[in-house]
Amino acid sequence: MHEDYEQLLKLTPDEMAVQILEKRRLLADQISFIIQGLEESVDQLQQKYDKIAPKYRKNLDEKKNDSKIISEFEKIRKELKEEKTQLDAAIRISKESDDAVSYWTRRVDEGTGELDYDYPDLMRFSKAVSSGKMSRIGIKHQNKKN
User: pLDDT tens for residues 57-81?
Assistant: First the structure.
C-alpha cells in the first residue's frame, strides 16, 4: 500500500490526469453493460408486473385475501421499484462519468492553468501568495482590524 503512494507521488499532475482518464474510460465502458443488464431486468419485471397486476386487482375487487398472489405482487412491485432506482442511478453515474472524462480530457489537452468558472483553480490562493499577495487569512485578519 505504501509503495502505491510512493508511485503516485512520483507522477506529475499531467501523468496522473492521464491515468485517471484511462481508468474513467474503462469504467465508462463497463457501465454501459450494467445499464443494459438493468434495462433487461426492468423489462422482465415490468412484464411480470403487467401479468400479475390484473389478478391482484381482481382479487382485491372480490375481497379475497389470497395471500400468495398478494405477496407475489408486492414482491414483484418492490423488485421493479428497486431495479428502476438502480437503472436511474446507473444512467446518472454514466452521465457524470462522461462529464468527468470530457473535463479531464480537456485538462490534459489544455493544461490546468486558468480553469472554467464551474471548476475554479484550487491553487489560485497559493499562487497569489507565491507572487507576493496577501493570504486569505491575512486579508480576513486585516479586515477584522479595520
Answer: 777 777 655 667 778 888 888 999 9
